[in-house]
Design goal:
Layout (H helix, E strand, L loop, with lengths): L14 E3 L9 H5 L2 E4 L5 E3 L7 H22 L3 H4 L5 H16 L1
Antiparallel strand pairs: 1-2, 2-3
Length: 103
């Protein structure tokens, strides 16, 4: 069994690994050795005995930026999907304009 640092709040040496969190899913808690004291419920870094708040903030910031970049990069632009700006539509508009000029 893994030995974790004592709880920074109550000094208990009994802590359990956290398998899932809202902020990191399954990966985040494993990256930061996120544990929970079984006596008082405090969560902290099991390796250092310190808070994971700064690591969690950085993790959320980086993952949010990556998600935004992925969504904007992978989504098609509005310009390409606008029928008024496509070359076929422009050609059709030119034909309509020439028919109107003839009449």
């Amino acid at each position: 069994m893994l030995q974790y640092r004592p709880c920074p709040k109550c000094a208990s040496d009994r802590a359990a690994a956290i398998g899932f969190t809202w902020w990191g899913g399954i990966v985040g808690p494993k990256m930061f050795t996120h544990v929970k004291c079984t006596k008082c419920g405090t969560t902290y870094n099991g390796k250092t005995g310190k808070s994971n708040q700064m690591a969690i903030a950085i993790y959320l910031s980086v993952s949010t930026v990556v998600a935004i970049v992925a969504v904007t990069t992978l989504s098609p632009s509005r310009q390409q999907n606008n029928p008024a700006t496509s070359s076929d539509s422009s050609h059709n508009l030119d034909r309509v304009a020439s028919l109107i000029d003839r009449s």
